[in-house]
């Protein structure tokens, strides 16, 4: 009889049922879509981060940058002006350098890696050394080479110091004595080849040739990012000069998570990178994997307490480094979407409550009659609660349908977002592109193009080097069981809330007063 | 047997007190048919609600059998309404979304009986008021007289000892009025009910064994 009465009331009062169900459906549908969108954005962010930090990396440890205590003066290129061949008064030069942080002093000691590995809750850790290879090639007029004291980290004779122009011979109209050179650079990542489960090696897959393995430790073998290899016209089987040393290109790699560039242009063995760059026992980043997600906060706190000179960042900290339309979508979801969902949900709950109470008011005489013929308060309460529950559940089911259709529609449209993440490490200021220079009429090298467009710190001084990858991510909104369960739970809560208010009101009615009602 | 002793009922209506009943003393014997007459607002319905354990007096006592129903908690009053008293209202008060059978069945909702037994009793009650062929009709598909018969079946399906009818023919034409009163009177005689009918209609009142008049909250025997 309870179910019969319930069914008849819901069918008999279709308008009220439809309004409550529609309100609830809208709210639940929105909650599902926003939730799925949020998860989709998080997933996209993870993909962007994974390409830089590696799959499964929970934290990164980097040295906290400190300002130099004394002015170091202009940065030196550190090339040997006397190397190369002298042709008709012009010195032809071609040199490569593998350079690290400012003065070589902004890296962590490898002992930090041991500290990390000994920390409770750490499942694995891998250290890397991020470097820049700079190739200086071209010709320099003899007259340009004024003997100067050695300067810069490279030591030995140097050509970088620009002297007053009056001391220099200018290039002739026939071209003799003029200078022309290229400065080419690319990023090099020294990786511990025995650690493939965490860190950058976990984020790349070999697309051509072979990858580096632990047996390649200490050898002059390199794998290149396939995009870089294409642009630099390099291929497997060839060689590449890194830090003045020829490396065999054994393979090409792509990020395992997307089709964009990987974290570095070239990957070589860590110990070789340390040796060639003069940064023995130094690391730029330690990638850390915790035993479980629950351990991340504790591990972060433990590492921060023992590695006081370093900065420890978790994935959620790193998420803030994601930029582009992906970041806009993320802030949209976490801002507008989140609050809109809550607002619509509250509105739906209020609509359900108000309509239920209004329904009870319209049925005052009905409830008075039921009380007169012996219905107990709890039975009347159950009746109202049951009706409200079914109305909300109906709305919830429709809402789940709306949510699923919305998710399907968004996934079908292959919505794409662009995101980039920067993994910071200190480098002397070179970005990731070749800079060509030529002598002007006064014989001074000048960068091609507008200097304002050059990367920060492109010449001289120091800047924060960013390993930045721009990725186009196709959004995929997942249909998660927990979101569906959340929707069902919200429907139940909405129904029970509205039913509780309405039922309480109905049960509080005095039968005599209810029967006097004119409804 | 009802025994009302010095019963008063006061309502608060728009910041003023309304004395619906004033020091009413009354006895109604078991099996008696009583008609209560009086002008609108005189206190007839209030008295019926007190007799039906729907409300409590502001002062005085009401005993039903040997139970003082004026001081019982709500849960006990519900028990009394559920088992001892049946109500018939002027506007029938049927649930519009339920058919005739379900409207009768609903009165048995608290009874610990099977669904089939409940349906059987409801069908029997409808048969006793002559509506065997209207069990699946909604109230909106029934005439006023038929709706009142359903209401009477609903009141009697629990086999109450007392039947309280508030203007049971107030919304019916003369012929239907007589039919309904014939039905009530027949059931009263057949089941030995205590029947209290509130009415404006002197023709109906004259059919009762005993006629009472309430005016301005005070009750007296009709002459």
Q: What is the total tally of β strands of chain A?
A: 19
Termini separation of chain B (Å)? Answer: 23 Å
Poorly predicted parts of chain A: 146-175, 423-467
Query: How confident is the prediction overall: mean pLDDT of chain B?
Result: 90
Number of strands of chain B: 10
What does the model show?
- The complex is a heterodimer of chains A (519) and B (223).
- Chain A has 519 residues and is of the alpha+beta class.
- Chain A has twelve helices and 19 strands.
- In chain A, the strands form three sheets. In chain A, strands 1, 2, 3, 5, 6, 7, 8, 9, 10, 11, 13, 14, 17 and 18 form a 14-stranded mixed beta sheet that branches.
- In chain A, a hairpin with a 5-residue loop joins strand 17 and strand 18.
- In chain A, helix 2 packs across helix 10 (377-412), helix 2 runs antiparallel to helix 11 (481-507) and helix 10 packs antiparallel against helix 11 (481-507).
- The longest helix of chain A is centred in the first third of the chain and has 40 residues, at 14-53.
- Chain A is elongated, with a radius of gyration of 34 Å.
- The two termini of chain A are 24 Å apart.
- In chain B, 33% of the residues lie in helices and 28% in strands.
- Chain B has a six-stranded mixed beta sheet with strand order 6-7-8-3-9-10.
- Chain B is globular.
- The interface between A and B is medium-sized, with 27 and 32 residues.
Entry summary:
Chain A is an alpha+beta fold and 519 residues long. In chain A, 39% of the residues lie in helices and 25% in strands. With 223 residues, chain B is α/β, with parallel strands linked by helices.
